[in-house]
Design goal:
Layout: E1 8-15, H1 18-32, E2 43-48, H2 55-65, E3 80-85, E4 88-94, H3 103-106, E5 118-122, E6 136-142, E7 147-153, H4 156-165, E8 171-173
Parallel strand pairs: 2-5, 2-6, 4-5
Antiparallel strand pairs: 1-7, 1-8, 3-4, 6-7
Helix pairs in contact: 1-2
């Protein structure tokens, strides 16, 4: 897990069903697809959680809300699915099958971590410490009823997204050691 150098914004949410997960994704989409308060479009979101937690459902809903039409495939086997909408590139990656943290570098994925692209990465922990920190890290967990999500901003962009969506809940928290997150 990346360690921020300064305060970060953290939001915890209950997601009672898949529709709530999809609604969260749809609410984030417009914030990454346009210029907001001087911060350019694009950004990196890391999606964490066990198998079946809802990472791919989140990514599909995000891409659909962004305007991607047609079939949105899971990148589980291909590792990468890319989309282009107007002048904006979208990349959906899945590192689940990586057994070595260097595999994402060997595959040439560093080149798609462009400043003005939207990059969604499932299983980022498989890339180890070599992957740059995301703007937003989303951990989705199974609960007795539904799911929960913890959204952690690691950049000014990520903090802006969270404070825009959740002004009453978004409070900066001091960084914690990497193992405590």
């Amino acid at each position: 897990m990346p360690t921020p150098s300064e305060n970060r914004t953290v939001i915890a949410l209950a997601l009672p069903d898949e529709a709530a997960t999809e609604a969260l994704a749809a609410s984030l989409s417009p914030l990454l697809c346009g210029r907001r308060k001087g911060i350019d479009v694009g950004g990196r979101i890391h999606l964490r959680g066990d198998l079946g937690a809802g990472k791919t459902s989140f990514a599909r809903a995000f891409l659909r809300a962004s305007g991607i039409q047609g079939r949105i495939k899971s990148p589980s086997y291909a590792l990468l699915e890319s989309y282009n909408l107007s002048r904006l590139n979208f990349y959906h990656l899945d590192f689940y099958r990586f057994s070595d943290s260097h595999e994402w570098l060997d595959a040439g994925f560093r080149d798609i971590l462009q400043e003005h692209a939207i990059v969604l990465i499932e299983w980022p922990e498989q890339a180890g410490d070599l992957l740059p920190p995301p703007d937003l890290d989303i951990r989705i967990e199974h609960e007795d009823e539904g799911r929960s999500a913890v959204l952690t901003a690691y950049s000014d962009k990520g903090s802006l997204w969270l404070t825009t969506l959740f002004p009453a809940k978004a409070t900066p928290r001091p960084p914690t050691p990497a193992g405590d997150a």
